[in-house]
Amino acid sequence: MRLQFDLQLAGFDLPAVRSISWQHPLRWLIAGWQDLRANPLPSLAYGLLFGLGGDLIILAVLEHPHLLTLSVSGFFLLAPLLAAGLYELSRARAQGEQLTFLESLRCFPRNAQSLALFGLLLALATLMWERFSAVALALLGPYGGGNALPYLGALVGGGEHLPLLATWLGLGSLLALFIYTLAVVAVPMMLDRDVDVATAMAASLRAFTNNIGPLLLWAAIIVALTLVGFATLLFGLVVIMPILGHASWHAYHDLVE
Question: What's the pLDDT score for residue 3?
Fold first, then answer.
């Protein structure tokens, strides 16, 4: 039995939200792949930015454990905004247009104020998480310097710090879920319509509360595929991120009338 929630917020003129089935996340992935095939060069250009940019960031913070963990966990917080160009490619294709990479960047000035404010909110959430991660790792003991990967591996494999690590992971998951509920359709909606950031986040929250099961499945698919990309030294993200970005546009299109 599907739970239905109606979010009543005074002062917000929210669009109607559709109910979706458990099959929709798979349909979104298929549609994302089709968009990638229809726009291979600009889509893969975004994928290369994700992959190469991520590798450079990880190399830069490899000697700082809390920044290394932040570069991975923070990716999930910022990804909805970083994929805006991919949403634009899918939006244009739905209207019969074929955009180049540079042309897809025109999406950012369209609703710049709302996008900038949403980006600021994501940045503040990431900064808060960075401070918590720094304190949590400081409590685990001194760090001797050098490559942080053996240090983090020893913490996870040692077993004596599992309660604190579990707390860190649990709080990070809750923060990521909270951002997800506010962002699942927010950025595509701000690109597609002239709406403010509060309306876009409220619409996302309504879409999530009306489709908790399917959208939790979609979140799990996003996390699983992104972790596969990280496991390939981020080069898997060259293909995975364009598919997920395009698929997220189709998720918005199916969820919001």
Answer: 44
Retrieve residue 196's tokens.
């403010």
* Beta carbons within 8 Å of 59's beta carbon, 6+ residues apart: none
| Predicted TM-score of the model (pTM) | 0.90
Report whether 255 contacts 185 (CB < 8 A). Answer: yes
Find out whether 32 and 245 touch, Cβ atoms under 8 Å: yes
CA-derived radius of gyration, the chain: 19
Instruction: Indicate the residue type of 118.
Output: F
CA distance 100 to 48: 15
At 97, is the secondary structure helix, strand, or coil? coil
Q: How far is CA 51 from CA 31, 48, 103, 152, in A?
A: 22, 5, 21, 22
The dihedrals phi and psi of 219, each to the nearest 5 degrees, come to: -65, -40
User: Exposure of 12 by Cβ count < 10 A (0-12 exposed, 13-18 middle, 19+ buried)?
Assistant: middle
What mean pLDDT comes out for the span 210-219? 96
What are the phi and psi torsion angles at 64 (to 5°)? -125, 100
In this structure, which amino acid lies at residue 27? R
Contact present, 49 and 225 (Cβ < 8 Å): no
In the chain, the largest separation of any two C-alpha atoms, in whole Å, equals 57
What is the pLDDT averaged over residues 135-155?
Answer: 76
